[in-house]
# Entry
Amino acid sequence: MKRYSAKKRGWRSKRNGFSLLDGIIAIVVLLIAILGTASYRYHSALDERKAAMQTSATRVALLLCESWRGVQGATTCDPTTWNLSGVTISVGSGPAVPSDFTSLNSYRITTNNYTYTATLAWQNISAGLRALNVTLAWPTSGTGTANTSYALTSYTQY
# Structure
């Protein structure tokens, strides 16, 4: 039985490398992988920034609440006079006061290149026991409008 081979008969293979379609498919697959990686890196960096802002906000709220608690929740205290390392406090507008609480004041707080607005409020729970509330708000987008908030309540004897 005779076997035919392409070499003996002079036949040439129809595929002699990549076609244009193969090249386009390879480029599309590569672009999808590159865009997916870039999107992942962008969202990872954005989430890291949000987490850093929230962690900083938690620390600032705790610092304000504990400093205010240190003066037994005095209703005449002024956080702008406190000497807090790395924190700048000035009077400004802040989030709304929780219901049944009395506002001490609202402040603008800057720390670690982040800016927050805060409202300090208090409520007498019973004779000699006072609830101290600190509510912080900050923007999570480039609009500058505060749309994320964190509240911390502590108790002290007065």
The chain has one domain: 18-157. The radius of gyration is 31 Å. The helical segments are 6-9, 20-70. DSSP finds two helices and five strands in the chain.
